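Entry 14. Ran structure prediction on the chain below.
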Amino acid sequence: MELLFEIIFEIIFDGVFEVASSDSRRIPVPLRILCVLIVVAVFGGILASMTFCGTVLWRDGEFFLSALMYVLTAGIAGVLIWQFVKASRGRK
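Output, structure tokens:
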């Protein structure tokens, strides 16, 4: 059952990511916007949960692990922003 959910989620997320990053004129703009919102929500949720884990670790006194979690979160967010800017400049 876990494998089935993993396959379904992967197919849906990969499809949404493909549509969101596609330059095809055949895909309607509202559908692309919806797919971008879904991708942003998924990555935002991952980053929010990582920040939450860092906060819980800090509260529990695990300062090194908390700092590591914050650094990883900032690094992932930085790479996502860099990729977005790179892709946006390429479309002009």
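The chain has a mean pLDDT of 87. Will compare against last week's run tomorrow.
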